[in-house]
Amino acid sequence: MGKDVAEIKHIPIDQIKSVFFERTEIDTQEYDELKDNILRNGITVPIIVRQFNDGYQVIAGTIRYMIAKQLGLKTVPAMIVNISSDEEAFKILFSENLRVHMTPVDKGRVILELKKRGHSLSEIAELLGISKSRASELLKIVEAPKEIVEKVESGQISTNKALKMIKEIEKKREEEKRKEKIAERIEQLRAELEKIEELKRKREELKAHLRSITLEIDELKRKSQQLDPIVAKVIDYNTNYLKKAKEYDSIAKNIDFIKFKIRNILATIGEENPEEAMSKLEKERDKVAKELGRVEAKIEELESKIRELRNERWKLQSRLEEIDTAYRALKKYTEDLSKQEKKAKELKEELDKLEKKYEEVKKNLNEYMKAVADKQEIIERLAKLYDEKSRIERELASLRTLDAREKRIVDEIDKLSKLLSNTS
Asked: Residue 86: CA atoms inside 13 Å, Cβ hemisphere, count?
């Protein structure tokens, strides 16, 4: 028990600071008999105390302490114990007071206090030296309604009678709890019915919305089909006329480049007409070639003038190469120019045809481009509507079981209502 008895001695009453456990009910006859005995013989059985707040606290012997105080005694015999916890104090209290008829309510208060301190019923029973079932009964008494506790304390009813009354009350409480649970369940089901009604309204709204979306999709499809011929013309215009026009612009730029090259070559030979320049170059080439032949023949005869003639030959050869290069380039560019001009002419003719063909498109291009934009807008709107339609259909599919759920809930409410009326 953790109790270490130091000594039994008389201690001053004014050094007793408190009582560990207050008694709720004291038997007046017992009190008076004990008081008479103390007057005749003094306190023969010491009270039990422990050190407390620079004084003492009564653990057992509360009535003896009260009588001593009432009689004006200055000291009281006490057994001073050293204990390590309140639990040990409760154990001392319980065991000592069994001899002085501690009431069931006070015993129950001890058990309740230990339970509040975190002890299980098994631990409390072991600590106090009683059975677990007895500990449970005493706890039930102290936790019973106030009128039962008062009747037990006053001795109007026995412990067994009190336990029977408590059992009856617990039974009624259980029945009330069961009824409350049924009523709560009915309220939950009714709330769920309201939710189902709301979902049914939502389902009708979704159906109406779905019909509206379907009508809009059909209307947009009709408009889209009306715009298809115009869109086809614009696409054809973009892929044919604009492509040819771009190709023609490229050739025109190429022609300008070739003409620029030809003008540079003509400038080097001082001519303006390509045909005349080519003729002049041919004559000069023949003349230079003849002169070159004459010079080469003369070189063989005139060894003394070989250096001069070789130098002249080099100049003539260089010039001849320049002439050949200019001639070949001029010929090539002239041929290229002829081809490009021919191709440009063909393209121009084709472009003119396409321009006539797409005159209506060009004339109404802004209107047609608007039609293309409208078509694209319709396509985007249709995509959104199809998504919305799919979402609504999925949501409607999830609401298909509403009617069955509603019937199950109504049936359960009827069943619970009958059960509730039968138990009333």
From this structure: 12
Q: Which amino acid appears at position 306 of this protein?
A: I
Query: Do residues 276 and 266 make contact, with C-beta atoms less than 8 angstroms apart?
Result: no
Residue type, 346: E
Alpha helices in 42-85 (DSSP H): 62-71
Q: At what angle do helices 104-116 and 146-154 cross, to 10 degrees?
A: 130
Nearest-CA neighbor of 110 among 198, 16, 23, 190? 23
Mean pLDDT over all residues of the chain? 81
Phi, psi of 47 (to 5 degrees): -80, 165
Q: Rounded CA gap, 388 and 216, in Å? A: 12
> In 356-418, which ranges are E strands?
none
Report how far residue 219's alpha carbon sits from residue 224's, in angstroms, rounded to the nearest whole number. 9
Place of tokens 């709107």: 381
User: What is d(CA 419, CA 424) in angstroms, rounded to the nearest whole number?
Assistant: 9
DSSP three-state, residue 45: coil
The torsion of the CA quartet 317, 319, 323, 324, rounded to 10 degrees, works out to 20
Q: Is the dihedral of CA 232, 233, 235, 236 positive or negative?
A: positive
Q: Give pTM, 2 decimals.
A: 0.37
| Tens of pLDDT, residues 194-230 | 888 888 888 889 889 989 999 989 999 898 898 888 8
Which residue has 């080469």 as its token pair? 296
What are the φ/ψ torsions at residue 158 (nearest 5 degrees)? -80, 170
What is the DSSP pairing of strand 55-60 with strand 75-82? unpaired
H or E segment and range at residue 3: none
Secondary structure in 3-state letters for 238-301: HHCHHHHHHHHHHHHHHHHHHHHHHHHHHHHHCCCCHHHHHHHHHHHHHHHHHHHHHHHHHHHH
pLDDT single digits (tens) 105-160 = 777 877 887 787 787 888 878 777 788 888 888 888 878 888 887 787 667 888 88
- Please tell me the distance from the alpha carbon of residue 334 to that of residue 357, in angstroms, as a whole number: 34
Contacts of 277 (CB under 8 A, 6+ apart): 265, 266, 269, 271, 330
Question: Which helix (H) or strand (E) is 188 found in, with range?
Answer: helix 159-239
The two structure tokens encoding residue 137: 């009964």
Residue type, 332: K
- C-alpha distances in Å from residue 220, one per residue of 101, 164, 228: 97, 82, 12
